[in-house]
Amino acid sequence: MEFTKDELLPILNNLIIEGKINPKCKNCNSDDIKFDPKIFRIQEYTGKTIDLLSSQRVFLIKTCQNCGYTEFYDALVLGLIDPVTGELKKNK
Ligand SMILES: [Zn+2]
């Protein structure tokens, strides 16, 4: 799932104003960062090929365009996803 650029920019601006996301790189302090409009899922590795019952987390990913340092922001904690329906909350 992903946001459009027009949907993501105001959401990011609000999260920066609220102090929930850092608009600079924690590694090199560059402000040349990029937020991927897609939400990524990381799933617990259980050693099985397919395990639909394993725990999963969803993240907004920020990558520094200067040094490549990447940060993961929990999309549920930021309120970007409805925890009941799993849909993106595009008007946060
Ligand atoms: Zn950096």
Describe this structure in words.
It is a single chain. This protein is an alpha+beta fold. The chain has one domain (5-74). Helices cover 14% and strands 27% of the residues. It contains one helix and three strands, in the order αβββ. It starts with a helix and ends in an 18-residue tail after the last strand. The site of zinc ion has 8 residues, from loops.
Secondary structure: elements and pairs:
Blueprint: H1 5-17, E1 33-43, E2 56-64, E3 70-74
Antiparallel strand pairs: 1-2, 2-3
Zinc ion (ZN) is lined by residues 25, 27-28, 30, 64, 66-67, 69.
How many beta strands in the DSSP annotation? 3
User: How large is the share of residues in beta strands?
Assistant: 25-35%
Small-molecule binders here are: zinc ion
Tell me about the largest β-sheet. 3 strands, antiparallel
The number of helical runs is 1
Helix content: 10-25%
Q: How would you describe the shape?
A: globular
- Main-sheet strand order equals 1-2-3
Distance between the termini: 16 Å
- Content-based structural category: alpha+beta
Radius of gyration: 14 Å
**Overall mean pLDDT:** 90
How many domain modules?
A: 1
Would you list the SSEs in sequence order as H and E? Answer: HEEE
The low-confidence runs, each spanning 5 or more residues with pLDDT under 50, are none
Which descriptors apply to this entry?
single chain, 92 residues, alpha+beta, 3-stranded antiparallel β-sheet, 1 helix, 14% helix, 27% strand, globular, binds zinc ion
